[in-house]
Amino acid sequence: MYYKLIFSLSLFIMIFSKAQKNNPALSVPATDEHFEIKIIDEYRNLEDLKDQNTIDWMRSQTEYSNSLLNTIPNRNYYLEKRLELDKRQGYSISDLKIISNDKYFYLKRNAGEKTAKAYCRQGFEGKEELLYDPANFNNNLGGKHNYIINLISPSWDGSKIVISLTEKGKELSEVIIMDISTKKIYPERITNTNPSNIGGIKWLEDNSGFLYVYYPVIDITSEQFRKDTQSILYKIGDDPKKLNNVFSNSNNPDLKISREEFPAVLAFNQDDKYYIGILVDAEDFRKTFIIDKKDLLNGKNNWQLLYDKDSKVYSIKLSGDDIYFLSGYNSPNYKLCRSSVKTKDFKNPEVLVPEKKDEVITQYVLTKDGIYYATTKNGVEAKLYFYKDGKEISIKLPYVSGNISLQSKGKDYSDIWVNCSGWANEEQRFKYNLITNTFKPENLAPLTEYPEFKDIIVEETTIKSYDGTEVPLSLIYNKNLKRDGKNPVLIQSYGAFGTSFSPFFARSYLVWASQGGILAIAHVRGGGEKGVQWHIDGQKTKKPNSWKDMIACTEYLIEKKYTSPKKVAIWGASAGGITIGRAMIERPDLYGAVIVEAGVLNTTRYEGIGENGFKEYGNPNNLDEFKGLLEMDAYQHLKKGIKYPATLITSGINDPRVASWVPTKFAAKLLSYNTSKNPVLLKVDYEGGHGKDIPVAQAYSTLSDIFAFAFWQLGHPDYQPKENTKK
Asked: Residue limits of the Peptidase S9 prolyl oligopeptidase catalytic domain (predicted)?
């Protein structure tokens, strides 16, 4: 019987492998010319996701990928382990909101549940009350649906709550409104919105309605998707189809809002005298307007410019006529400043906390007692400070933390909570008492023992990149690990949009390390770990720094005997696909496996990522920036006759950010050009999108495939198929 199984397995793999090789994607080339530079796109036809040939090829590749992944022993180990760890913890809490009357609103998912439900309680020790289960949501379309809650927003007085629901990774949501006392769901539903990502829900002062951002077109395949969005003022009970547009390019032509910018309205405190209108795009600093609250509510349209992008204002907050903000103006690590509605002086404001040399100010909150703010060094070492009346003090945290987050009830209250976490430290929530300088634990989720992780340590270091720049590198591994060059290493990286890869309690990373691997995070240029300049030095024409930093991190790990060539896997998602894709192409000899999730891999075709991406990646209408786009385009840099590493490329069919044809084209071309026998797998999730807003088991399953594929290709004995299917 055993030999029959082996024979069947071998025959199965052979048949499917041959099927993949005999099933290349149809190539219908197109040639574009920009600034007299001709670009041949061999798989332009795959951009038509409604073409049957494209549909069939994507499905056949996904089926093949699943068949091959199924031959890996322990393919589901990470899925099962994460579910086991969830069961041990019991439940998890997220999206906590605390309003002025000390009422808590949050999402809670019990172990074994697919998705989180909405709950509330009165104060930290109050009795928990279930508000809403997304399983009860019915959009009257029939069929199978697995809706998840991706945002909750209670009214100022806690009498009502907005619940945003989505499914299958679409991110675009339907919004319902609940009366808390009766649990009644109002009959009106808000559609065509994405509050968990753009604009949120901003309640009116009298709790009678709210502001949100409306998408006129929600078909992600349409050229009009993400364009001409509008801020809508909605009053509860009104017909949601009758839009009261208060801030947009059509409502405010004099403001010169582009079709690609998202005009969102901000509200900070119930008693604010003004509304702030911000044009959301891909840049750190945004053009911003102001209007008297009474004027907007009375139908007036007199928005005024508050500041332009060149003022470099970030994280604005209102308190009466005072405007607090972080300034990046001549201060790449930010300084904490104050201006006013009257003076509107943002280039020469009152500086409350000057820029710090080696620390980046990341966040701050206003309280009755003063201002609390947090900093990080290299994106991985957090500190907490308190400022009042020209003086600041350093507050010692309960334990050394890689990352902290701050939460308060508002400017009129003393309450302040600090969440501390790290790569190997479970997140803990504390309430801080300024008078006694003490932290009181107020964890909403239970702390859990993880004896299997007791020997896992974290090493924070910096390495020199090709140009001498010091790049932070985080390493997670077993303290008993030998530096003999034989350890499987998985390096994850992002490096875009000024987003820091901040430490969090990464159970999956710890599971990888507990199996003898090293998990590394390369904090490459393009992120925000070292401030504004770190971002600038990894975008547009400077984007090569991102993948060159990744290569330098890999070489460091090899030089220091942590690992060796071909024992390294690299992993990135979304914009991190540029870093991963170009590192693989520039140095295929360094890597044993490459994983790209929903990756930006074809930047010369901005149609796949949206025109907002111009501001991060480059404008194709500018010669220098177009050359930068071409340089970072992994798809265009694939070369025939090269032996590329084993590659797992994933996508979600409902992805609203990176069209699923982008990874598909890359996979098709890589399969055609690659001369190695290493597998090239394209796996499309037909129940997912950009990797978020999906049931937890679905997310764990994707992660399980990534780790199993990496361990398989890096030679871990527990992940080798019975027959050698790698070659």
From this structure: 510-715
Domain end marker among 382, 415, 447: 447
My answer on whether 434 and 508 are in the same domain is no
pLDDT at 145: 83
H-run or E-run covering 662: helix 661-673
pLDDT of residue 139: 58
pLDDT value, residue 539: 97
605 φ, ψ to 5°?
A: -110, 75
What's the pLDDT at 144? 74
For the entire predicted model, the pTM comes to 0.94
- How many domains is the chain built from? 2
Which of these, 371, 556, 598, lies nearest to 459 by C-alpha position? Answer: 556
Please give the DSSP secondary-structure letter assigned to residue 356.
Answer: P
**Is residue 126 within 8 Å of residue 171, measured between CB atoms?**
no
3-state secondary structure labels for all residues of 198-248: CCCCEECCCCCEEEEEECCCCCCCCCCCCCCCEEEEEECCCCCCCCCEEEC
Q: Do 660 and 653 meet the contact criterion of CB atoms below 8 Å apart?
A: yes
For residues 427 and 516, membership in a common domain is answered with no
Cβ atoms of 386 and 372 within 8 Å: the answer is: yes
In this structure, the answer to whether residues 421 and 565 fall within a common structural domain is: no
Q: Are residues 545 and 619 in the same domain?
A: yes
pLDDT confidence of residue 22: 78
Query: In this predicted model, what pLDDT tens digit does every residue of 44-69 receive, in sequence order?
Result: 999 999 999 999 999 999 999 999 99
**621 and 566, same structural domain?**
yes
The pLDDT assigned to 609 comes to: 74
Separation between Cα atoms, residue 146 and residue 225, nearest integer Å: 24
Same domain as 591, residue 538: yes
pLDDT of residue 124: 96
**Residue 547, H or E segment:** helix 544-559
**Helix pair angle (2-21, 52-69), 10° resolution:** 150
CATH code at position 13: 3.40.50.1820
The two three-digit tokens of residue 681, written as one number:
């797998």
Give Cβ neighbours of residue 256 (< 8 Å, ≥ 6 apart).
249
H or E segment and range at residue 507: helix 507-514
Map tokens 């309690």 to a residue: 505
Can you give the pLDDT at residue 446? 92
CATH number at residue 390: 2.40.128
Q: What whole-number distance in Å separates Cα of residue 510 and Cα of residue 485?
A: 20
- DSSP designation for 596: E
Q: Which residues of the chain have pLDDT under 50?
A: 1-13, 725-727
